[in-house]
Specification:
heterodimer, A: about 550 residues, mainly alpha, MetI-like fold, 2 strands, about 0% strand, B: about 350 residues, Rossmann fold, OB fold (Dihydrolipoamide Acetyltransferase, E2P), six-stranded mixed sheet, five-stranded antiparallel sheet, 8 helices, 20 strands, about 20% helix
């Protein structure tokens, strides 16, 4: 029951947004329909299609190569491929714009070298749909990589060897067996990347591409129509619903695709000559373009502007950002465990529905969460203050709306599903018979969670915690709208400076975000490495599963 | 059907710098079924994986009809050596139906031929009903049948089976063992299975190799392994039995606690050349005979339907096993008359007492 209340509370923004469809917003709606709606939809769809191709290409092949082959540097690439996770989309967009723009170092050098003038030559325009697709793919591919790598690593070596003995080369075994088996996991990764794409505000805003998110912002801020903005968001939710269903379905499929945890993993192969070079290119390029190049550029800029960066204000932004992220991550993990476990112990339509309701939050763009949170909170604050004035003659003002509380609440709405997805995925790997074994041995559900599930899911839990932490740190649009007056975070500062075209100055806070995000990414990679190397947790798990047979 | 003969010459395999398989040689004739028998960790699975091409050999050669497929110098690619592999866990492709699983290795066949081959195997292995089901719906025995059908579908040169029955129920095992043997013989495929279970080996294989510590101790048929083991280790591993002390007296006589044996009545008997010897007594060598002057006390008994397996203690404290028809029912603690009735007997030099 408390599960349902919790879900309802977290689903408030969705309810607000969806119910907005039933209000009339006057002319704005028809105006939108006449002018920009098709463009929003078209751009958003094109963006999703492009990013799909991008993240699948950048994510799957490296995952396969680092799992199946060992070569000098393969261990390093295994974690380095996660690094772009530390760079928010808007930051990579600012950085590449600074590098590739007409006035940027690359084009200037070209002009100088060939004595061209502006307009004499063709150069890809970074501030375009294609540019946005490239930027988003470069930073969102690790979601696909992470899930694909885990899926490949879990595949039984026997299954791959069977395929080889039936006449498949390593290459065709990948397409005929490994890839289809990893498909559910890959689709989960892809749907996360696409939800991120739909939610992106910073990149498309900076590149001047009209998508739903920028449209919502414009409608709300420019046209001053919160209902119109909410209605646009409701449309966006339609897309999201498709993605969420896709993801849930894939996860269901993956239960049948388990090739057995107690099996020996594949013996890693070796690479030589041209195929080794190809492997380096395929695994190295995403790291290079998604992390090394923009990171170096940020370093260069920061080294020029460091004396304006290291101020007391800066320490304040840093403290604000990290505190918010830590509070949200811990709260999200606790709530995710609560919901996921409730769903498992009391499986019912109701619990499943409430967890799906919470799941929708993730795909809500930050702008939409902000609107969905602001409207009911403002209503509550106003009623409360009216009541207080009437009863005690004391004006509470905007008690909650202008505080950190509303910000954390919005973050939870937005990021709890990441934690929930990860915890759910971890829990799905534990067969129900294991629960029954534990229960029959006299463990309470709580003891079972503590003594069986959490030890087995340790990796998933760490992943959940870190993913939320990183995401809060990077979050821009909701923070932009909900922050208390004069409350600045690193993300806000970066956005403000970039939009004043002070890209070099923006490098300071941007670099701080990237560095802070690096810590959880490195921890995450270490968890992965340990999960891969130390089989100590595996035999425990498998001996339990043997008993349950 | 022309399945080639498989021959191993002095094959050694190292894993991570450790010697796992030590100079093993044997030959399985075309269409024959061989079994590598040994306790877990003895190197038998590694040897099987080396034959399959999953592990390289560090010396020696594996050849099919005289053509080497694995030497330290040259390894034929796994996908080109046409070995069928059946794993203990069946390893069916979970994303494919039974039909698609069987068809997996038949890509180069025409559709009509492929369907015909699938139908043939489905009827051979009695899985016709299951062709459209997915692996997670199948029982363990059904999965094993599908795994065998899948491995045999492309008519491999050699079929390799890793503990094919150990994940199945005991009752199912014997029946399936017979059935699989029938299918292998029908297809005429040369096969090697790996097992730690001698009854599985006896039921399926023509010839069996006992492996211990990476070495092949003996390669022979089940009858000979049981009755004329080449070493104590083999005798210890195969079948039930005990070693009793004996003394060779003259050329044809062995004295034991259970009486004197005239070795001229025993086929192919060789004395090891020492005076003090150990004799391997099988439960069927020790006969129940109430009239016999030799008595032994019943320590344990196990009812096996037609017979009892008695564990008996001699006056010296030495224990022997005896199979007796189950109508000869003796209580535990009771003395029971026994005599030796030996047709096959193996003697080893007596082990020094440590």
């Amino acid at each position: 029951m408390s599960l349902l209340v919790l879900s309802m509370l977290l689903a408030t923004p969705i309810v607000v947004v969806v119910s907005s469809v039933f209000f009339t917003a006057g002319d704005i709606w028809t105006h939108l329909l006449d002018t920009v709606l098709t463009r929003y939809a078209r751009n958003s769809l094109l963006l999703m299609a492009g990013v799909s191709v991008g993240v699948l290409t950048l994510g799957i092949y490296p995952a396969w190569i680092v799992t199946v082959y060992r070569f000098p540097g393969s261990k390093m690439l295994e974690w380095a491929l996660l690094l772009p996770l530390a760079i928010p989309a808007y930051i990579i967009a600012y950085t590449y714009t600074g590098m590739l723009d007409v006035a940027g170092p690359l084009q200037s050098a070209l002009r100088e070298a060939f004595e061209w003038r502006y307009g004499d030559y063709w150069f890809p325009e970074i501030r375009s749909l294609g540019g946005a697709i490239a930027m988003l793919s470069l930073v969102f591919y690790p979601y696909v990589y992470l899930l694909a790598r885990a899926a490949f690593a879990e595949q039984s070596g026997n299954v791959m060897e069977t395929a080889r003995s039936l006449g498949c080369s390593q290459h065709s075994a990948f397409f005929r067996v490994a890839l289809p088996l990893a498909r559910p996991a890959i689709v989960v990764g892809l749907s996360i990347a696409l939800m991120e794409t739909l939610a992106d505000y910073g990149t498309v805003q900076y590149f001047g591409i009209s998508t739903f998110t920028t449209g919502i912002y414009r409608t709300w801020n420019g046209l001053g129509s919160s209902i119109g903005a909410a209605q646009l968001s409701a449309l966006l939710l339609g897309f999201v619903f498709v993605l969420v269903s896709l993801e849930a379905w894939s996860r269901q499929q993956s239960q049948f695709f388990n090739t057995g945890a107690r099996n020996r993993p594949s013996t890693p192969g070796t690479l030589r000559g041209p195929s080794l070079c190809l492997a380096y290119a395929v695994c190295g390029l995403p790291v290079l373009l998604g992390f090394v190049v923009p990171f170096m550029q940020l370093l260069v800029w920061a080294s020029i502007t460091y004396d304006t960066i290291l101020t007391r204000d800066f320490a304040g932004y840093l403290f604000n950002s990290v505190t918010l992220a830590a509070i949200t991550a811990i709260a999200a993990l606790g709530l995710a465990l609560f919901i996921a476990y409730g769903k498992r112990v009391f499986p019912s339509q109701l619990t499943r529905a409430s967890s799906r309701l919470v799941g929708l939050g993730y795909a809500l763009p930050g702008t939409v969460v902000a609107i969905g949170v602001l409207v009911p909170f403002a209503w509550f604050d106003n009623r409360l203050s009216e009541f207080m004035v009437a009863t005690f003659d004391y004006n509470t003002g905007l008690l909650l709306s202008g505080t950190v509380f509303i910000l954390v609440f919005a973050y939870l709405v937005r990021f709890l599903p990441i934690a929930l997805n990860t915890v759910d995925a971890g829990l799905a790997k534990i067969r129900p018979s294991m629960d029954e074994t534990g229960r029959s041995m006299g463990f309470s559900p709580a003891a079972l969670l503590r003594r069986v599930h959490i030890p087995i899911m340790r990796g998933s839990l760490a992943t959940a915690l870190l993913l939320v932490f990183v995401d809060v740190l990077k979050e821009l649009p909701a923070t932009l709208l909900l922050r208390p007056f004069n409350f600045n975070t690193l993300a806000i500062r970066t956005y403000e400076l970039a939009n004043e075209e002070r890209l070099a100055d923006a490098a300071g806070p941007a670099l701080a975000i990237v560095l802070a995000s690096l810590i959880p990414v490195i921890l995450l990679s270490r968890t992965l490495r340990q999960a891969g190397e130390a089989p100590s947790s595996l035999p425990q798990g498998s001996s339990i599963s043997d008993e349950s047979k | 059907m022309t399945s080639p003969a498989l021959q191993l010459d002095n094959v050694s395999v190292h894993l991570g710098g450790k010697l796992i398989v030590d100079s093993v040689s044997f030959r399985v004739p075309a269409g024959g079924i061989g079994c590598l028998l040994g306790a877990s960790g003895c190197g038998k699975t590694t040897l099987l994986r080396a034959i399959a091409g999953f592990e390289p050999v560090s010396s020696g050669s594996v050849s099919l009809d005289g053509l080497p497929i694995s030497t330290p110098m040259k390894m034929l690619d796994i996908e080109k050596r046409r070995v069928g592999m059946v794993f203990q866990d069946h390893s069916l492709f979970p994303h494919l139906s039974v039909r698609q699983n069987i068809a997996f290795g038949l890509q180069s066949m025409s559709v009509a031929k492929r369907e015909a081959r699938i139908d043939e195997l489905a009827s051979l292995l009695a899985i016709g009903e299951l062709l459209d089901a997915f692996p997670h719906r199948l029982s363990g025995g059904q999965q094993q049948r599908v795994a065998i059908a899948r491995a045999m579908a492309p008519r491999p040169e050699v079929l390799l089976l890793d503990e094919p029955l150990s994940s199945l129920d005991v009752e199912l095992r014997e029946q399936l063992a017979r059935e699989i043997r029938g299918v292998l013989k029908h297809e005429g495929v040369t096969a090697i299975l790996v097992s730690h279970n001698q009854f599985e080996a006896f039921a399926m294989a023509d010839e069996i190799g006992v492996i211990k510590g990476g070495k092949l101790l003996q390669w022979d048929n089940a009858f000979n392994l049981y009755h004329t083991p080449a070493s104590l280790a083999v005798a210890d591993f195969i079948g039930e039995g005990v070693l009793i002390d004996g003394r060779a007296v003259g050329e044809h006589t062995v004295e034991t606690e259970l009486g004197v044996i005239d070795t001229r009545q025993i086929q192919d008997f060789n004395l090891p050349g020492t005076t003090d010897i150990s004799l391997l007594l099988r439960p069927d060598d020790v006969f129940h005979d109430d009239a016999s002057p030799t008595k032994a006390r019943v320590v344990e008994k196990a009812f096996r339907g037609a017979v009892f397996l008695y564990t008996l203690e001699l006056d010296s404290g030495k224990r022997v096993l005896s199979l007796a028809p189950s109508h000869h029912d003796h209580a535990i603690g009771e003395p029971m008359g026994i005599r030796l009735d030996v047709e096959h007997l193996v003697a080893f030099p007596k082990l020094p007492v440590v």
